[in-house]
Amino acid sequence: MRKIKVGDDVMVIAGKDKGKRGRVLRVLDADHVVVENVNIAKKHQKANPQRGISGGIMDKEMPMHVSNVGLFNPAKGGADRVGFKVLGDGRKVRVYKSDGEVVDV
Description:
By secondary structure, this protein is mainly beta. The protein has strands spanning 9-12, 21-27, 32-35, 40-45, 56-61, 64-65, 69-73, 78-80, 82-86, 92-96.
């Protein structure tokens, strides 16, 4: 089980986009995630009329290290660390470290 999953609401805690919030679009490997509207880079795209791709300078979301993002805790109003806990019925769930609140339902 991963601490950060696709669709999670995360907050950037380090780097040039510190303080921005976004949704996780992809988890590339154990250490890198792509977050919506964060870590934007300019990509020079060559036109390809056969595929219907127009050329120009495009904005592209680049991967960032998972240590630079934290799961957004609405109760705290900021990023929080994540841990794991086994419930009484045997399910393993993610919990916020600050208050022990369960992330998954």
